[in-house]
C-alpha cells in the first residue's frame, strides 16, 4: 500500500501551509493521500478547517517533534 505524496512545509508560516496544501491536492486524483509536515502552530487549526471546508478527509493529525503531521485524502 502506498502512502501517497509527502509535502514538507516546515518553516512556512500561515497562510502558506494551507495554500501549498491546496495546490498539492490539485495534482492528485480523488482518493489519493497527502501527508503534510508543518512547524506553524496555526496549521493545527488551519489544516483541519481547510479539509472540512473543501471536502477532503483528515485521516490523521498528530504532533511530532517540532511541529505537526497531517494525513489527508483528497475528496471528490
TrEMBL record:
<keyword id="KW-0808">Transferase</keyword>
<protein>
    <submittedName>
        <fullName>Sulfurtransferase TusA</fullName>
        <ecNumber>2.8.1.-</ecNumber>
    </submittedName>
</protein>
<comment type="similarity">
    <text>Belongs to the sulfur carrier protein TusA family.</text>
</comment>
<dbReference type="Pfam" id="PF01206">
    <property type="entry name" value="TusA"/>
</dbReference>
<dbReference type="InterPro" id="IPR036868">
    <property type="entry name" value="TusA-like_sf"/>
</dbReference>
<dbReference type="GO" id="GO:0016740">
    <property type="term" value="F:transferase activity"/>
</dbReference>
<feature type="domain" description="UPF0033">
    <location>
        <begin position="7"/>
        <end position="31"/>
    </location>
</feature>
<dbReference type="InterPro" id="IPR001455">
    <property type="entry name" value="TusA-like"/>
</dbReference>
